[in-house]
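We give its fold:
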Amino acid sequence: MRKQLKLRSVALAAGVFLFSSSMLCLQAQEQEHIAIDAKAATTPFPHFWEQTFGSGRAILSLRESYRNDLRTVKQATNFQSVRFHGIFLDEVGLYDPDRQTKNPGLAAQAANDASIYNFSYIDQIYDGLLANGVKPFIELSFMPKKMASDPNALHAFWYHPNVSPPKDYATWDAMIHAFAEHLIKRYGVEEVATWKFEVWNEPNLDFWMGNPKQATYFELYDHTARTLKAVSPRLIVGGPSSAQAAWVAPFLAHVKEKNVPIDFVSTHVYANDTADNVFGTTEDIPRDKMVWRAVKNIHEEILNSAFPKLPLIFSEYGASYSNEPNVTDSTYMGPWMANNIRLCDGMTESMDYWTFSDVFEEQGVVRSPFYGGFGLLSADSIPKPSLNVFRTLHKLGDQRISVASESVLATTTANGGLTVALWDYAPPTGIGATYTMPTGPAGPAKTFDLELKNVPANASVQLWRVDDDHGNVLKAFDAMGRPSGDLTQEQVIKLRAAGEMAPAEHVRLKQGKLQVTVPAHGLALVVIER
């Protein structure tokens, strides 16, 4: 996650989006007729959007609140791995060259205590993930202060990680070797060979103070990748873990030239990144297209590189890199997420949403439940609409039917059922760092006339919804008067209940037809079992 000072052009974007939203409200909404044949040709549709989630830094995973949220999202999505910063931070306690022996009278104990590496918290962190059915996606960061070339190169995050290169690479290499060797010894190579190791985080921004940035990051990557492969060639390593979909082409050219191991490409993008920062152009790319444009561009860069078959992983992405409550805390996330899935399908192995929980401290200790945090659950484990969006989209099948619409995803399930996602995208309203209560709909509703073929003509249908009136905790929060301070236990209980997924509506097809009206910022899912 990038720091909050990078609010590049939010004020300008807010004006554009508010104007666009106003214009949408003045336009008549066209009714869409959608014909879907349940026996039409399909393409594989792996759930690439729910394989990995980001989270707050490593040490937070020892908290019960973190693990409770982890279990909730695991149940909702069955996600497979989690990525976080800071496994090498001093608070985790791995590296300390000045560590002293505590029991010199016992030779074996003395030898153990004299080690400069302490894996106690690392073991607790990874044990906790694995106990909940989640693997680590290991971001190798940040620099232990006693290993840093500049002890004062501290990032602006609340916990101030050191972001300088190591003062010597022999020390860094030894730590990486000991780290990988320990993981294999504790968990076995069969398990660790299924994890991914990613070198650093967003080195093209202020998370890396090497000079020059790119060349020194490439040096860090070379040392790290070669050391990991020396421990076991089965370990999976990749990078450059860059922000704004940057550096991929030169990175791949470098590893080819230097014959450095590479197993996957990783990079990041946010929907409110600017075209100037991502593409070096002056285009006005809307929030619902930016992520797709970046994914498409990097997908093509890989195809045109010396490694055309390398997997692409967007190991961090989201609708906003800044705290915008009316974006990440709101029902806007339904259409935004569904549309990204529609557009990015087939171009990336995994898109890793940032983050699963607001147990998160990059800007400090959370003060308000709805401040535009990145998580699917707010503080006190209150479900946001975005959690219900993921719950809804998890119900999609694993084979996709092509549909000529920008607001529809149609899939078939393993048991022969048909699932159809419908949404009504409108730009976000009330952009900014303060949550604002809606004064009206974000735009006109959209009506879908579905004509479904090769399904029982009068089949029973489950209709799941996430919109302003379904699975939307903000409606209850508004009714409370939007309390800005600490919530009472009674308020927390009420908000948790209000944030739960709305129960399915039960309707029937009429001669294979169904009409569904979806409000602006709404997502609906039609489920027809075999």
The first strand starts at residue 32 and ends at 37. The chain has one domain: 28-528.
